Amino acid sequence: xxxxxxxxxxxxxxxxxxxxxxxxxxxxxxxxxxxxxxxxxxxxxxxxxxxxxxxxxxxxxxxxxxxxxxxxxxxxxxxxxxxxxxxxxxxxxxxxxxxxxxxxxxxxxxxxxxxxxxxxxxxxxxxxxxxxxxxxxxxxxxxxxxxxxxxxxxxxxxxxxxxxxxxxxxxxxxxxxxxxxxxxxxxxxxxxxxxxxxxxxxxxxxxxxxxxxxxxxxxxxxxxxxxxxxxxxxxxxxxxxxxxxxxxxxxxxxxxxxxxxxxxxxxxxxxxxxxxxxxxxxxxxxxxxxxxxxxxxxxxxxxxxxxxxxxxxxxxxxxxxxxxxxxxxxxxxxxxxxxxxxxxxxxxxxxxxxxxxxxxxxxxxxxxxxxxxxxxxx
Length: 378
Description:
The chain is of the alpha+beta class. The chain has helices at about 5-20, 25-30, 55, 60-75, 95-100, 105-110, 120-130, 210-215, 230-245, 290-300, 310-320, 320-330, 335-345, 350-355; strands spanning about 20, 80-85, 110-115, 135-140, 150-155, 165-170, 170-180, 195-200, 225-230, 250-255, 265-270, 275, 285, 305, 310, 355-360.
């Protein structure tokens, strides 16, 4: 077991001792293992990292979200104090741009208490260095105080939460696992001494697949895969209760379909290229599509107000990204600014794939950039 990703060896040993593990357990180890996890060992965002996010594409993205936060604060009645919370703030670029735009509204800045939920030590250091404001860091939303209204922003946070996968078989819906590949070698060839991982299935099917996986699984063909995100669902439910108790609003921006569906969306990204999910755990970013429809229904069931899901392109246009782009073009680099704007809003780039889910306490008079809920969710 030499010259292998250290986490691959660690995973292989654990599976060898305890048996195949669920996909969400594999993802959790790959991303947050304290010694070899992806988020524990570096800062992967940006042109020199493995992937790039909207705030790194253009300052316009963070600026508009900063103004969105100011508008939301005003709709809440300008509470003082209030908590501005960002989940998974990465390099801190979004918040730097957001606070620069919001800084023109001094009462907002005076009332704000900035909190960031960040698991990565290197990222925490980077955020504290870049952001000229006192930050309270936390490992989970549970640690954020509950004694004042909150305005929460999460950009590309939900897609990194571990998922569970279930596959339709002749026996029913069986959970997908990650195990060791023990395929025999051909006669006369040496057995490989390097471990490799593979997907497997739990023998026993789950009970009540409609109840656990939703109506989307009705009529599914053999081989179909359904995904759930327990961490995301728990987060949205808990956040909904907090919004009701504390007051406030939340904004989730991520990629995935507006309606619940089926399919294997787990993917790995390294050096801006897709790679095998099981080959380099701890050295590649693992993500999956967000089921916005399912999360909106969970929020509504908990008593919060979930706004109709919008595309990122429509949301940013409603907030005025084209006007901001035209203003920035007057300072130079017009072609670069227009390229960045198109990348954020065009339907063949991020504008359609990325969606926006807004949540608030009941009774809030809308959220900027999002349509009002007229029919509700059943």
